[in-house]
Amino acid sequence: MPSRFASLMMHSMVFRLLFGFVLPLFLQSSSVLSNPLQLGLQSTSSGLPNPSGLKVGFYQYTCPNAEAIVRDEMIKIISQVPSLAGPLLRLHFHDCFVNGCDGSILLNSVMGLPSEKEAIPNLSLRGFGTIDRVKAKLEQACPGVVSCADILALVARDVVVLTKGPHWDVPTGRRDGRISVKQDALDNLPPPFFDAGRNLYQFFIPKGLDAKDQVVLLGGHTLGTSHCSQFADRLYNFSGKGMADPTLDKRYLPRLKNKCASSGDTTTLVEMDPGSFRTFDASYYRHVARGRSLFTSDQTLMNDPAAAAYVRRQAAVADSGAYPAEFFADFAASMVKMGNVQVLTGAQGEVRRHCAFVN
């Protein structure tokens, strides 16, 4: 028991160090910059290779219309089913956090071996049919050229743009992985019921993503909905004490309980950014600042002064109705950075002809 206590104390110190010291350093530079070129996106728009081996315009000669094909399909799909924007953005997150951005989230289970799709955090994912539709169009134009991993990255960018968010150049050239394991998803996806410090240390930092990336990428919760089961513990049994999370806005709690009538509700959907859940903007930070975030992972950003300052700054922008230049530039930069995580390039992996199956 003493050794376990010492280990927990050490982890607690690391969390405080990362959130109390590293984060302020990262946030200082972004507090006055809104130009994406100033925030490290300069190399991604030049067409030159970045350190991961990816480059903007990778398909310039092998499939020159690739991005236009993806964009045209996404315009049609989002105009018909706007609620897919959030889930399609989420697909890219869930792919990259599990053994890198290799399209493994798209693979079906085979021969009794459950894939990432079967893991509890992924059971509510949607949009697989959209990826298949885009892939089919690309296969018609350029057979065996554009990877499923790149499709996920391009679709994520396009749904953000189509919901009034920022545009960024997506470095491409990813190859598709051949392995998808259910347990890997359980081991690598940050749970919504962990606090922000634990998620940072356990899931973001090991992937090369820092404290600023965390607070920025969580802003992606401005799009979409969540099942009650993802946050019901905060309403009914926080920390196993049979009470609500005391950090939840007391005026908002009854509304959430009215939507989620019991802790076992696995079907009801709740907007993560009420009133703006189909528009990509900074308004989600208003809910975090006011104690109205659905998830422990997001609400506990307010426990760190620097993270809280970033949240409040974006909330103020949203309240004023001003253009969220800082958040948009930061989000674009962090998406490019996340999209570089553990990618396969060159002769690694393969380019699947159907995203749900290896060749």
From TrEMBL:
Signal peptide: 1-24
GO biological process, one term: hydrogen peroxide catabolic process
Residue intervals passing through the bilayer: none
Binding residues for substrate: 190
Enzyme Commission number(s) from the entry: 1.11.1.7
Annotated site location: Transition state stabilizer: 90
GO CC field: extracellular region
UniProtKB keywords: Calcium, Disulfide bond, Glycoprotein, Heme, Hydrogen peroxide, Iron, Metal-binding, Oxidoreductase, Peroxidase, Secreted, Signal
Family: Belongs to the peroxidase family. Classical plant (class III) peroxidase subfamily.
Record PANTHER family: PEROXIDASE 25-RELATED
Name of the protein described by the UniProt record: Peroxidase
Species: Urochloa decumbens
Taxonomic path: Eukaryota, Viridiplantae, Streptophyta, Embryophyta, Tracheophyta
